[in-house]
Amino acid sequence: MVDRLLGRTRDGAAEAPIDAKSAVWNRVQLARNLRRPRTLELLGEMADEIVELHGDRAFGDDAAMVTGFARIDGRRIAFVGQQKGADTDENIRRNFGMPHPEGYRKAIRVMELAERLGLPIVTFVDVPGAHPGPESEERGIAEAIARSIALMTRLRTPIIAIITGEGGSGGAIAIAVGDVVVALENAVYGVISPEGCASILWRTSDEAATAALAMKMTADDQLTLGVVDLVVPEPGEGAHADPAETARRLRAVVLTQLERLERVPPDELVEARYRRYRSLGAYTEVTAPAIAPPPSRGLGDRLRDLLDPTRWSVGNPTPGPSRRDEPPALEEV
Amino acid sequence: MPIKLPSFRPRKDAYPPDLWTKCPSCSEMLFNKQLDKADRVCPTCGHHFRLSAGARLDGLLDHGSFRELDAGLQSVDPLGFVDQKPYPDRVAAAQVATGLRDAAVRGIGTIEGRRVSICVMDFGFMGGSMGAVVGEKVTRAAEQALAERIPLIVVSASGGARMQEGTLALMQLAKTCGALERLRAARVPYLSIMSDPTTGGVFASYAVLGDVNLAEPNALIGFAGARVTAGTISQELPPGFQRAEFLFEHGFVDRVVHRRELRHEVARLLRYLVPAPVPGNGGPTESRPAFDPIGFLSSLADRVVQDLGPSEPEPGRTHEPASSRRPESASVREPASAREPASAREPASAREPVRPAARQASDG
User: What is the predicted ipTM?
Assistant: First the structure.
């Protein structure tokens, strides 16, 4: 099916320009491609050596998150990344790349260690979202994500974050706070999955492609927004077509950035990282007087209501102004 | 105009919704005026209704002590987002409905005399969703707490990040967590209060990171909504899940506090949540004022009677020359209004030079 999608992309590019919606949706499909190289595959090509570290020292080891040390071109680094499986069995073992809290706590542990040892950190982001189940909530998935984000904003060591596939919301940003954020060409990054967005705003997940387009999820759009600093082109049809070449291109980028960031004193590095995220987000400051609150309904209004003929139509009562703090149904939240 | 009797209408419509509210928990019909008087808590079953930002501030802070800051921050539409309605239209509609510019209000106020930097959210504004404005206000509140070395309080009520601002909304998680991390390093305490609901990106950033986390009874607090869970892993969440008591049980909330007790509880905690001096970083020494006997004595008095006199602001202020001291309310207002033009222009960088040095020095 993916090949069919790819075929369509190629035909589209060659013949008529396909519409924006399916172009974006193709990207989403490419980012989710089962054969797309993951953290360990990419790092295997990029690094001379990998030493994986396991366990969060509190609960267990999460196979959806891989961490450890690696040597790239003689440089020692620490790495953190999500790992999806290449087939069903591995996907079940790795929980489809959706980490539990212990995965993020393992990442926190390894990143703190990296800071202590003065090793730069490279993170690989490819996650549909953090695992949303009951056991995740019980063990504090939100707390683990928030701690990880907070830690990354203050680590006194260079951080390069690479969005390699799906950048799924909080589960992604938890390990994607960096001095430089790189994305592969066909990676997508979003505040919610397109299906989730569509089911909330369009009330049907069939509109996922429309939502993906509206949220400007593609790497190029993210570059324009300033969320991503660098986009690395993928070879051929996409990263899955030539993982080795993809890794080679990433390796060059990582080495250049490491070279640059390692020359920056830690204080400046942390300050620049804080400023980077401090400046993200669009707002204006208006000086116009505050918006007048809706006038409270006085006696006159109620009398007018009484005389309002529409209010008296049989069998069809007009709903009054609903109170905004009225609790909605549970599913609405 | 023919006037008919209303007897044809179903019985439940005899309660105009602007006068009566039905309690979703015990189905009791509650007279709104009485409900408002009871802090919007059902007198029959104790169900906590959601509070608007204004009502929340009234309930927490000393009467008349709140001064709003950054009221003019307003969302723009960075993505050109259109679902069934363009995003700017949704914002405009929410503004008319709530009288707010965005889903958070921030400023300075006092709680039993203690000056705090506070930011409260309003679920009525687009589900309290966090876009750039909410993130910016929380961040500025944290930065002000840091500059003045006063405690930070954030009251959350939000469904999560605002989808219409895409990844820029997601980046607010990093922005707010970064500011809180600086607060932490400077040993300035942060109190997080979670009300119904606190979910998604708000819970997974500043709401959960409080030095002390409080929650209102039965508030929905969680990372992924029930629909996301059902849609992603086809699993139903058990009842009572993601409620304040559940989080308390699992160790993510320090105390579940009834709204009636909340102000008192916060005031009690603020006696302990006092910024500690940072060793070797007591502010620029050159700006330390010359020895001022009157100021020194009164500051000493302040420190001694700190816990007895609820009307005293934070002790550092008394290092200002005695001649410039004014009646309480005026002196609380004065330095902040001098800071306002700077803070209204550009966020952090512009505000830093105006950091009140005297106050810093006295803390060191």
Answer: 0.83
